[in-house]
């Protein structure tokens, strides 16, 4: 009866199979599932939903919302089964991405702090069902999450019914790492009382009325491992430019010698840049972020970081085995929160975060495209980068200066899709150098970005563009007949180079 995992005896009678629990799902439902960047995702019931959609004659298409991306190819399997009508707020699956770009699945790209705000205000409809992975159910019936909190707490609170997946592969030592605090309804909401990254303000479990728990499913599958690549020469250079800049800021008295908390977005570049701080002169670092990646534990192990707060733990296979096999070593230095707390503008601004996120491309004025290739084709989504960039004390966007063996420049005259406009971007950095855009007018920003961040292959092209645009005048000079010339050339020839 899994007494150690389901300690509330009154709920043990709810144990059932994943197939039986999936019968609670009906066509047209709005379903919220746990999972944030491949961590803590429900692993059994979604696959049974896909099986039903694939095998049964009755239509079964749902709107699926999560915290962020899912592991175990769940999005691919649901897409191939035709089970997804609508998906939000983030994804990373190639098959789902193709369906989104063909218009077969309606994808709503949202700031990760906003999804449950809209749900709470009933602007997305009624949440019919929540599917939440848990490490345990405590004596009072509280649901103890696994390796992510994400939107799980609010989904469970707002849903009509809840399915809990108890995952035996997740270590029980995760219990106690979570800090569950859900904002009240507006406009009577109280302030969010976090003044330090290590503050705990909530509970260690998600509490819902017991009668809402409609089924308990037992699963036994570890999280999917992160696919983040290790640092390379170029990402090491990016980290070096940033660390040198922050050293200068501290020397000038603009930053304390003990830096404010760091945030790093998901992905190879941001993870590698954060790892670079292990070789920096900065000590006693704290992290207040969404995703705690390998780099977080590199810094904790090196003694450079003393505490890390996030919404999920997403690790490579090797790191996953090491960290989850020795959680006691990290217990007093970690906390996992709901993403509407980890990404809350009030806290980000109060703590004065340094936010480091990744750009697909940036233009010469500092506008950043994080999501759309060629301005039209969705990659993954904006994620939490906008939550942090708008409110951080230093909003950094990092990218390699070129892609596809130099055939694509990541610095362009004008981004064809803008996720972060120039007002929210303080620093653009590539392996070529760093452009500090703070306090600069557009014409000054353009020269700074071109000379410091662009690859030599494209620098003259960008200089010529800016010279011709400036001759036409304007506060933010552009030649609209040439603004997308690099993108047009790439579409026609496979290279932005002439």
Outline the fold blueprint:
Elements: E1 15-16, H1 18-22, E2 30-33, H2 45-55, E3 62-65, H3 74-80, E4 84-88, H4 94-101, E5 106-107, H5 115-120, E6 129-137, E7 143-145, H6 152-158, E8 161-167, E9 213-219, H7 233-251, E10 262-264, H8 268-275, E11 285-288, E12 291-292, H9 294-302, E13 305-310, E14 312-313, H10 317-324, E15 334-336, H11 339-342, H12 345-351, E16 354-358, E17 361-363, E18 368-369, E19 372-373, E20 377-378, H13 385-391, E21 394-398, E22 402-403, E23 408-409, E24 411-412, E25 427-430, E26 433-436, H14 442-453, H15 456-471, H16 485-493
Parallel strand pairs: 1-9, 2-3, 2-6, 3-4, 4-5, 6-8, 8-9, 10-16, 11-13, 12-14, 13-15, 16-21, 17-24, 21-25
Antiparallel strand pairs: 6-7, 17-18, 19-20, 22-23, 25-26
Note the overall shape. globular
User: Gap between N and C termini, in Å?
Assistant: 68 Å
Q: Give the class from helix and strand content and strand pairing.
A: alpha/beta
Number of continuous helical runs: 16
* Strand proportion: 15-25%
What's the main sheet like? 9 strands, mixed
Query: How many strands appear in the DSSP assignment?
Result: 26
Structural overview:
- The protein is an alpha/beta fold and 498 residues long.
- Helix content is 29%, strand content 19%.
- The strands form seven sheets. Strands 1, 2, 3, 4, 5, 6, 7, 8 and 9 form a nine-stranded mixed sheet that branches. The chain has a five-stranded mixed sheet with strand order 10-16-21-25-26.
- Helix 3 (74-80) crosses helix 4 and helix 7 packs across helix 8.
- The longest helix is centred in the middle third of the chain and has 19 residues, at 233-251.
- The relative contact order is 0.11.
- The model has no long low-confidence stretch (mean pLDDT 96).
């Amino acid at each position: 009866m899994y007494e150690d995992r389901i300690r509330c005896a009154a709920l043990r009678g709810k144990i059932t199979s994943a197939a039986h629990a999936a019968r609670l799902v009906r066509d047209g439902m709005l379903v919220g599932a746990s999972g944030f960047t491949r961590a803590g995702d429900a692993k059994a019931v979604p696959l049974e939903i896909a099986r039903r959609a694939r095998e049964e004659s009755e239509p079964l298409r749902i709107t699926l919302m999560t915290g962020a991306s899912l592991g175990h190819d769940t999005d691919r399997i649901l897409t191939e089964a035709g089970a997804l009508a609508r998906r939000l707020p983030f994804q990373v699956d190639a098959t789902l991405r193709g369906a989104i770009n063909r218009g077969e699945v309606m994808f709503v790209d949202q700031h990760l702090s906003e999804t449950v705000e809209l749900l709470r205000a009933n602007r997305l409809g009624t949440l019919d069902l929540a599917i939440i992975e848990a490490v345990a159910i405590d004596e009072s019936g509280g649901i103890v999450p696994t390796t992510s909190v994400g939107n799980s707490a609010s989904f469970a609170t707002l849903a009509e019914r809840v399915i809990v997946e108890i995952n035996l592969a997740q270590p029980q030592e995760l219990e106690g790492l979570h800090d569950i605090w859900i904002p009240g309804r507006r406009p009577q909401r109280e302030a969010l009382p976090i003044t330090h990254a290590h503050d705990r303000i909530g509970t260690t479990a998600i509490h819902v009325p017991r009668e809402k728990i409609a089924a308990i499913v037992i699963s036994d599958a570890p999280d999917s491992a992160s696919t983040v690549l290790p640092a390379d020469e170029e990402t090491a250079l990016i980290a070096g430019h940033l660390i040198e800049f922050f050293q200068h800021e501290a020397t000038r008295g603009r930053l304390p010698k003990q830096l404010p908390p760091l945030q790093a977005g998901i992905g190879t570049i941001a993870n590698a840049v954060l790892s670079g701080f292990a070789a920096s002169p900065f000590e006693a670092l704290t992290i207040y972020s969404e995703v705690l990646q390998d780099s977080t534990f590199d810094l904790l192990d090196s003694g450079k970081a003393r505490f890390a707060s996030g919404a999920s733990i997403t690790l490579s296979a090797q790191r996953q085995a090491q960290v989850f096999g020795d959680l006691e070593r990290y217990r007093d230095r970690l906390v996992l929160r709901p993403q509407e707390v980890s990404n809350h503008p009030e806290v980000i601004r109060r703590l004065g975060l340094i936010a480091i996120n990744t750009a697909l491309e940036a233009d010469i004025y500092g506008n950043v495209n994080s999501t759309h290739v060629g301005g039209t084709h969705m990659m993954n989504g904006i994620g939490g980068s906008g939550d942090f960039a708008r409110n951080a004390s230093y909003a950094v966007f990092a990218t390699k200066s070129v892609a596809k063996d130099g055939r694509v420049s990541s610095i362009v005259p004008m981004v064809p899709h803008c996720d972060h406009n120039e007002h929210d971007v303080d620093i653009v950095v590539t392996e070529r150098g760093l452009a500090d855009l703070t306090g600069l007018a557009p014409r000054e920003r353009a020269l700074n970005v071109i000379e410091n961040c662009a690859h030599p292959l494209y620098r003259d092209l960008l200089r010529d563009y800016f010279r011709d645009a400036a001759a036409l005048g304007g506060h933010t000079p552009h030649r609209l007949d040439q603004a997308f010339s690099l993108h047009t050339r790439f579409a026609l020839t496979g290279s932005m180079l002439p």
